[in-house]
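Please fill in the sequence for the structure shown.

STRUCTURE ENCODING:
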């Protein structure tokens, strides 16, 4: 195997007039002379100049869109415009033919829906190349952010017996023969005979186990796949998504918000620095796409401006109660434009309300705190009732423009009696979560954490509109292809 140089390195090369070998896939072949070659290391193609008069015509025919080739030649300062360097080919080898009559991709703009059906090939487009390079950078940046701050990366289980969110949206895990599962004497499925000797499911969140780690390691984070069998066919939900869940001993709600805001800014800045070309390309793509929309639906800022705006502005922090008051008085509410009118205190916010607050009212990311106790998970710390007697918990949700909820978190209820009481009220089985309750029995302390939906972050940074386009192989209702 000859040494190959990646296209990114060649395009940035200070040295010219050197012999190199480069390998990649043909993106275009013009006038039997100019190959645009891409190897995924960058969004930019390398121009290869072919001496077609002295090249076997049979070989030239095989240089088609999508073919994998190897080129050895001289890297020179480009004679043409549009690129700094190009390669004058001395030897071209076809590594893999690509018949243009059969290849599903075409060298033209194809719809995102079509590319989703061809997710096995969509990496080869400019858009998906950019998305998955940005996704990679964001994942790395998340680790770097936490590692720089001394957090311990904790691997929480994928298979568990608990439903951390208590929402009943779990996927069962079993190795029973589903046609003939063993039954008890009373005719129920006998999970004692199942692989784990009890009913189990895929995790919806690593939080509860993360809290156990934080009660000794102080600062931990998880970063792994989570699974939810919620039947939501939306552009914001996946059945399998990646979540980042820091959990920090001795942190309160304000510390939690500070950590979340710092983290989001850090990783967005990291991607802006590292993936400048990709984000510029995605900015252009979004601007083009928005031209199809009526003027009043287009965003006021480009993608790049939105990302920069997010870095330079403090997120707006307000309580749920304050948000409800704003929404109640809002024009769309008064004009009955909301599908779910704001009736009063206590109702859950719908995405139309979140988007109004973020996109119309504040025009910046928003952190909402102190939600009604009744609409949040059992583990959130209970606040003292306010002057109106409203019962709230120390929750925080971060809402982003175009995304809605990107982070959900809270300070945790560390007081055993309060926690047990809440579990009873909500029908959360205390006996099954004995180990969780033990942390409140032995050396309990105030602590807080949150969950960032990784794909929602990637959506925001890439400016894409559908979460199914920012994970390589999306899982959603009625789809598990690839
Ligand atoms: O708000 P959620 O349900 O919170 C938790 O799971 C907590 N245990 C987190 C914690 O405090 N450690 O989910 C957290 C985030 C949401 O804000 C959202 O970004 C994302 O996970 N998320 C989803 N992303 C894609 N598809 C889905 N079906 C999602 N459900 C939640
Ligand atoms: Mg939530």
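FILLED IN BY: designer on duty
SEQUENCE:
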């Amino acid at each position: 195997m000859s040494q190959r140089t990646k296209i990114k390195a060649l395009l940035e090369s200070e040295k010219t007039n050197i012999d190199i070998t480069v390998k990649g896939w043909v993106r275009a072949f013009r006038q039997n002379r100019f190959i645009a070659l891409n190897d995924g290391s960058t969004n930019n193609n390398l121009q290869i100049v072919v001496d077609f008069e002295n090249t076997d015509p049979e070989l030239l025919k095989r240089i088609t869109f999508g073919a994998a080739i190897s080129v050895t030649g001289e890297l020179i300062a480009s004679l043409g415009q549009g690129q700094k360097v190009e390669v004058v080919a001395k030897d071209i080898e076809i590594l893999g033919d690509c018949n243009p009559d059969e290849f599903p991709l075409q060298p033209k703009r194809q719809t995102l829906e079509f590319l989703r059906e061809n997710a096995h090939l969509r990496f080869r487009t400019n858009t998906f190349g950019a998305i998955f390079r940005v996704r990679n950078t964001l994942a790395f940046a998340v680790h770097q952010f936490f590692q720089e701050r001394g957090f311990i990366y904790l691997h929480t289980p994928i298979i568990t017996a608990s439903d951390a969110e208590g929402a009943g949206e779990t996927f069962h895990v079993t190795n029973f023969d589903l046609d003939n599962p063993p039954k008890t004497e009373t005719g129920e499925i006998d999970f004692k005979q199942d692989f784990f000797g009890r009913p189990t499911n895929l995790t919806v969140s690593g939080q509860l186990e993360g809290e156990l780690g934080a009660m000794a390691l102080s600062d931990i984070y998880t970063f792994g796949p989570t699974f939810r069998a919620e039947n939501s066919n939306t552009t914001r939900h996946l059945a399998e998504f990646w979540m980042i869940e820091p959990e920090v001993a001795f942190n309160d709600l304000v510390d939690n918000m500070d950590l979340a805001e710092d983290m989001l800014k850090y990783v967005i800045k990291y991607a802006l620095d590292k993936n400048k070309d990709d984000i510029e390309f995605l900015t252009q793509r979004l601007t083009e796409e928005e031209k199809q929309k009526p003027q009043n639906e287009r965003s006021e800022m480009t993608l790049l401006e939105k990302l920069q705006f997010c870095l330079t502005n403090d997120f707006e922090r307000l309580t749920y109660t304050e948000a409800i008051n704003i929404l109640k008085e809002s024009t769309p509410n008064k004009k009955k434009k909301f599908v779910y009118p704001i009736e009063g205190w206590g109702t859950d916010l719908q995405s139309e309300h979140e988007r109004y607050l973020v996109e119309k009212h504040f025009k910046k990311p928003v952190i909402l705190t102190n939600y009604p106790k009744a609409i949040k998970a059992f583990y959130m710390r209970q606040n003292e009732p306010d002057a109106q007697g409203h019962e709230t918990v120390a929750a925080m949700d971060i809402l982003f423009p175009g995304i809605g909820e990107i982070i959900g978190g809270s300070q945790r209820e560390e007081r055993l009696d309060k926690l047990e009481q809440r579990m009873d009220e909500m029908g959360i089985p205390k006996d099954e979560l004995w180990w969780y309750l033990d942390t409140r029995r032995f050396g309990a302390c105030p602590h807080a954490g949150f969950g960032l939906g990784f794909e929602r972050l990637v959506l925001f940074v890439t400016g894409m509109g559908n979460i199914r386009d920012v994970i390589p192989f999306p899982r959603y209702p009625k789809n598990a292809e690839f």
